[in-house]
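Archive transcription. Copying these from loose printouts into the bound notebook so they stop getting lost. Printout 1 of 2:
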Amino acid sequence: MEYRYLGKTGTKVSAFALGGSSFGSRTSEEDSIKMIDEALDFGINLIDTSNRYGNGESERIIGKAIKARRQNVILASKFGAEATHELNHSSASRRSIRAAVEQSLLRLQTDYIDLYQLHLPFEFVAYEEILLTLNDLVKEGKIHHIGTSNHLGWQMVQAQAISDRYHIQRFVSEQTPYSMINRQMEFELAEVAKQYDLSLFVYSPLSGGLLTGKYKAGQAALSDSRAATLKGYADALNPELAENEYKFKIIEKLQQLANGAGILLADMAVAFTQNHPSVTSTLWGPRTSEQLKAYIAGAELRLGTDVLDAIDAIVPPGKRIDDKEQTWSPEWMSAERRRRHVS
């Protein structure tokens, strides 16, 4: 396993990380703990979760699983996207952050979180408020480093400037989607990361399962596939929809490239994310032990220049071939913000 520095913190994290989004929701506690043990034994030392995953169950299970090995784990969690409609219970205000971190520490059965990440940007909470609160938590020893998730390049620059102005802790990482068919990260965010010594943790290297090789344009998805179980809710995965034909034709070209190189499409997809110099770690989000074993089996794959050039020819650098891959919609994209007021 290769280990890389988390920004300029001096902390080293594994080139692959275990994501806990399925733990306690789509994956049982027993199977989740088994996968955590397998990942740690393989050499992974970074485990990522959120207080949102499984409504807190993911954190509870991870805390239970790593209790005896806590000193060897770099534990990352997120806040700010809690699934609640209670007023002031899901935000990034000082009050909300403090409540969230205390609850996460209890579930994780630990005194500190190595990397505490803002799950989404908040238009109505100033970065000063967020960063000053997180800075206090670092001083108190409850968290060690701070990061973000699903942020844009300009937001990262703004936050860095505020940290410099107040001489306080700065974000050291950003977690963002990245795959062969969603290369938007390369257009701006990767350069921002380089300029500010930010670590990029990339998730969804298989684009929600699209790059597993099991979907064919115009054909019904297998009954046990994610596309079938989420039919009607995740149209981006549906190979039967005419609107997705172009995307699945692109995926078919990538499949042919993988076949010609004698490798699995899924392995090629994960290896592709590792090739960008700004990527610190690629998150694996297995739902089953079999899926984790498949990730591990392909972990040593490295792509040659000829394969990378061929991928560039199919999906140009910096491009995203499907806007349905957008993981969140910013406030300024609402109709009210896009239209002038008409009296």
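Printout 2 of 2:
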Amino acid sequence: MDTASPETSIVSLILQASVLVQMVMALLLLASLFSWYVIFRKRSQLANARRLSRTFEDRFWSGMELGELFRQASRERVREGLASVFVAGFGEYVRLRQQPNPNPEECIQAANRAMRAAQLRETERLEEHLPSLATIGSVTPYVGLFGTVWGIMHSFQGLAKVQQATLSMVAPGISEALIATAMGLFAAIPAVVAYNRYAAQIGVLVTQMDGFRDEFSNILQRNLSPAGEGSRKLAGADAP
């Protein structure tokens, strides 16, 4: 009676596999490890991005003068998300307002361009390594299947050398080949789930930045009126 544990049997099957199948398994293992590294890193990054965005949004709508908020945000060591978009837009607005005979409309347009550029940088930072998860999720099942097909072919080629083939002769080869498919699915499933989840979270953050950019542009636009009635104070706009 075979008393070997399943773990020992799997390890022995991997060790007995052909060199090519072992290379496929090693590649899938590396892909899985990298996928989990990205998953945990991206989880922490997005949680931090959501926290910073909520904190800055609360400060922005607290009624603080925008000039003071700009000075505080500019001095912060970590400036991401909405804070980065705000500093880019307000900084460009202030810079142009300090020019001789500034055109208010051009100042607002320049601020919008600066905010869009900052938002694109923030989006690119948030999406870093996300395509890697998509690639791992879509490619590794096929890599594992390739290892399985090769292992089965190798097993049947061995059967051609014997006159009487039995199930016990081909079963180990097929078993070791199927491990490659299992490893491919083990690498792919978490990557696909994480990609979909993180892509949705990034979409929410990008939408939040879009809304903030529009609202801030409206605030700047309202300050073009003669009295600036109903607008936020831009104290410090002339001397950041």
